[in-house]
Amino acid sequence: MRLTEFTELVGIEFGRLRADAMLVDHVLLELGGRTGAQAIADGVDPRDVWRALCRDFEVPANRW
Questions:
Q1: Element (H or E) spanning 55, and its range?
Q2: Nearest to residue 38, comparing CAs of 50, 19, 24, 52?
Q3: What is the CA radius of gyration of the chain?
Q4: Domain limits of the chain?
Q5: I want to staple 19 with a disulfide (CB 3.0 to 4.6 A). Which of 1, 10, 38, 46 is the partner?
Q6: Does the predicted TM-score (pTM) go above 0.85?
Q7: How many Å apart are CA 19 and CA 12, to the nearest integer?
Q8: What domain of life does the UniProt record list for this protein's source (predicted)?
Q9: 47 close to 7: Cβ distance less than 8 angstroms
Q10: Which of 3, 17, 9 is nearest to 53 (CA)?
C-alpha cells in the first residue's frame, strides 16, 4: 500500500481531523508502542499500520 493510499483511507474512515490526531496520538501496541506516524517514519509498511488501526478501532480492514 502506498502512503498516499493509506492517508486517503484513514481520512475517509476516520475523518481528516480525527485521522491526523490519531496518527500522532494513538499508540499502537502491536507496532511496538509507536504511533502510526512513528511506525511509518520507522519504515513500517502503511498497510500494517492501517490494519493495526482497524483492529484497535474495530473497523473491518478489508472493507476498503
A1: helix 46-56
A2: 24
A3: 10
A4: 3-57
A5: 10
A6: yes
A7: 9
A8: Bacteria
A9: no
A10: 9
